[in-house]
Structure prediction request, 286 residues.
Amino acid sequence: MAPGGRACAGLGGLRVGTIRPVEEQTPELAAIKEQVYRDPRPKEYFDRFHERSRTREPDFAYEGVRILTTIYALTFFRARCISSEKVPPSGPVILAPNHFSFMDHFFLGFGTRRKVRFMAKSQLFQPPMQWIYTHGGVFPVRRGARDEEAFITAGSILERGGCIAMYCEGGRSRTGKLSDTVKPGIGRLALESGATVVPVAIHGSSRVRNWKRGEFPKVTVQYGDPIRFERLDGPTREQQQLTAEAIFAEIKRLYAGLEAHGRAGAIARVRAERRAARRPKGTATA
Prediction:
């Protein structure tokens, strides 16, 4: 058991995982349940899910879920994407968003035609939902176990020119604020694959959990400029961490812009940048 954790009891008192101590939560936000941090099932249980993700593409389950969650996002959360054209239409891509809500996966995916593959905590892979996850292109990661299989799967998807979403912060923020620290995992994946990284800011999703209180916040997703890092074989832990921090710095910059100027202000700034880019060099402005 991890220090400071406690066993999570299942049926008959069987231990099914270790619960991680929660961060201090903001009263204005609905509480999130304590998360089970360790999955006691052996890695062999998840081999079939990895094998499918490494060899097959998402099927109709992905499109079905995408349609339903897009309707939900647009109707209840008035979701809007900004600069989704910055996501390359083909080739290996890592989408790197901040993480507040279980809905972030769907907010991220509805703005691009790319089929976005997700790394999800292994505890979610329980019947019957595991069928939907694996057919929808989701693959498991055993948190707290230094899960190499998840990185092998992610790398194989990128090698085939796929699109992966990975959160710099690891798990969801419980405070409604961006994390102060980031995990090196996304830095490792970016360096080992050489894939294009697109930073993404998801603003407003911290309050999605308040739907039980009848609150449905406006959610904005802004895609940033693509970043490429030199491909490295066996990057050091320090290199991984520095790369992750560089990616997260871009996410924070995008998020700060949405926080300061709002959706309308961010859209206006993007439009102004586009007009400036189209203007011939040397043209005077009023």
Observations:
- Confidence is low (pLDDT under 50) at residues 1-22.
- Residues 43-278 form one domain.
